[in-house]
Structure formats: C-alpha cells, structure tokens
C-alpha cells in the first residue's frame, strides 16, 4: 500500500469545496460572516464585512482585469498527457479526465491577451480547481508561450499564481518547468518588458520557487498563503514554533518578499498604474 493512501476518512469536507467561489444564495466566510452570493460577486468576491478574499479562478480574474471581459485566449487547446503512465490509487489519465469534466478546463492555467484600461496586456492565470493548481508540463509550456507572446508583441505580462506546487504525477517533467519558466522570464527582463507576479491564496511549492517570486514587482491579496513548504512541514522540520501569521501575505510583505498587498477591487488600477510608471506612459489612475 502506498504511504500516501488514506485509510481512514477523518475529513468530512472535500478539499475542493472548502474555499472556492460559492454555489448558492449565501456564502459564509471563515470568520462567520454571511453574505448574499450576488452581493459577493459585485464586491469582487470579497466578503464586505470582514474583507475575506474568496478563492476565485481565471474566469473571475479575467472579468476583473480585462476591459469589458474581452480577450483572446492563447493556446487554449493544450492538454496534459501521461508520459510516465503514473498510477497511485487512481490513474493519472483518469484524474485528468475527471478534472476536465468537473471544471471545464484543459489544465491548471489559462493565458489570454486583451486590453486593461485601454492598453494591451497578457495574463496567465492559474486555476486551483484543476488538480490543486499543480504545475505540470502544460502549465509550464503555456506560461512559456505567454512569455514568448509578450516578448514578440512587446506587451507586459501578468501571472496570477494559485497552486499547490509541482504536479507529482509528472515527476521530473514537472520540476523541469521551474527552470523553463524562469528562463523565459529572464528573456523578458533582458528585453525590458515588465512582468508582474500576483500571488494569491495559496501559492506554494515549485510555483513559489519559480515564476511566482520572479516578478519585476511581486504583489498579493490580503491574507493569502504564500510559501514553499507548508507551515506544518516547516514546523516539523525545524522543531520550532512558527511566528504568528507565518507565510501570510502580510508576513511576507513585512520581511521584504512582496512589494505591496492590494484589495481585489483595486487590483486592475494598481497593476496599470505600475505599468504606466515603468513604461513612462501617462498615468491613468483617475480613469480606473
């Protein structure tokens, strides 16, 4: 029996149901605040009473960042294969099929180009609902191609990370994506094309160890979990109690790993303000 196979069902709530965009009339935040789902959507999926940022995916981020939700999706038909014929308590090909049927996604990232506040931008956004946002070969390839598109068209790139890390079902092929995406971002840097990294809840593992922390500016939403290994693993490895708020966005900001934290309603304006500054364009802050 594999060491990672669960033998006792001690968890009553499926992981995928815990913090995603709610389905129904009401949503209850972790702090106990209840909000109407329609009101939640109008407030950028942020609980108005306590400011809790509900986990959302590429569909919602594209709606927030692209003007009138108009964009052209890049490499939309790329999908994962199973070169290692991986199987634990389930075949990898079956996991892929189930994830595709459940989410309607081809893999854990979508890339698109469109206008944001009137200027062209390329956005690569990860979806945690697809196998925990894990980074496999397709994720690395699509991000690399998005960087190539930015390089060719001289358009700024934004990557929105939301990931549990490298996809274990692809083993070393997944780990190769760290170097691959990092090399592409280095090419953008050499060409003077801005890259903004937005780390959302959660951003962990190989994603953090590569493109999520390589932005010209690294930003996050309030309360996001950001780190390499999880807090429990770090605590067990070091044998020490961790500081309060360890690996939250606020902790990382205080220790110099992030440039700023922004409320989701200000995200579009903040990203474009930064791009105006670095590209020496007229500021568009008042037109957000």
What does it look like?
Helix 4 runs parallel beside helix 5. This protein has helices spanning 37-42, 58-65, 92-103, 137-153, 171-190, 205-208, 231-238, 249-254, 267-278, and strands at residues 26-28, 34-36, 71-74, 109-116, 119-126, 157-163, 195-203, 217-220, 260-261. The protein has a seven-stranded mixed β-sheet with strand order 3-4-5-6-7-8-9, sandwiched between helices. A two-stranded antiparallel sheet has the order 1-2. It is of the alpha/beta class. Strand 4 (109-116) and strand 5 form a beta hairpin. It has nine helices and nine strands. The protein has a single domain, classed as Alpha-Beta Complex (2-enoyl-CoA Hydratase, Chain A, domain 1), CATH 3.90.226. The termini are far apart. It comes from Ulvibacter antarcticus. Pfam families: Carboxyl_trans. Its EC number is 2.1.3.15. Keywords: ATP-binding, Cytoplasm, Fatty acid biosynthesis, Fatty acid metabolism, Lipid biosynthesis, Lipid metabolism, Nucleotide-binding, Transferase.
């Amino acid at each position: 029996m594999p060491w990672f196979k669960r033998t006792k069902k001690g968890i009553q709530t499926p992981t995928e149901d815990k913090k995603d965009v709610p389905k129904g009339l009401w949503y209850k935040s972790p702090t106990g605040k209840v909000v109407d789902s329609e009101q939640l959507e109008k407030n950028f999926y942020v609980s108005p009473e306590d400011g809790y940022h509900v986990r959302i995916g590429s569909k919602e981020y594209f709606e927030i960042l692209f003007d009138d939700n108009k964009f052209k999706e890049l490499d939309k038909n790329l999908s994962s294969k199973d070169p290692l014929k991986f199987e634990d308590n389930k075949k990898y090909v079956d996991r892929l099929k189930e994830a595709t049927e459940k989410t309607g996604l081809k893999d854990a990232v979508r890339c698109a180009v469109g206008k944001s506040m009137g200027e062209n931008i390329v956005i690569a956004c990860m979806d945690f609902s697809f196998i925990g946002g894990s980074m496999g070969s397709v994720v690395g390839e699509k991000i690399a191609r998005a960087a190539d598109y930015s390089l060719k068209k001289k358009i700024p790139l934004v990557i929105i990370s939301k990931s549990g890390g490298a996809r274990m079902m692809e083993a070393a092929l997944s780990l190769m994506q760290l170097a691959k995406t990092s090399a592409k971002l280095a090419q953008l840097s050499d060409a003077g094309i801005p890259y903004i990294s937005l780390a959302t809840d959660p951003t962990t593992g190989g994603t953090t160890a590569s493109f999520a922390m390589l932005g010209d500016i690294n930003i996050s939403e309030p309360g996001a979990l950001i780190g390499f290994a999880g807090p429990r693993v770090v605590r067990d490895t070091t044998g020490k109690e961790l500081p309060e708020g360890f690996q939250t966005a606020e902790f990382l900001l205080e220790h110099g790993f992030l440039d700023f934290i922004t409320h989701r309603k200000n995200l579009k304006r903040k990203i474009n303000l930064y791009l105006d500054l670095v590209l020496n364009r007229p500021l568009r802050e008042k037109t957000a």
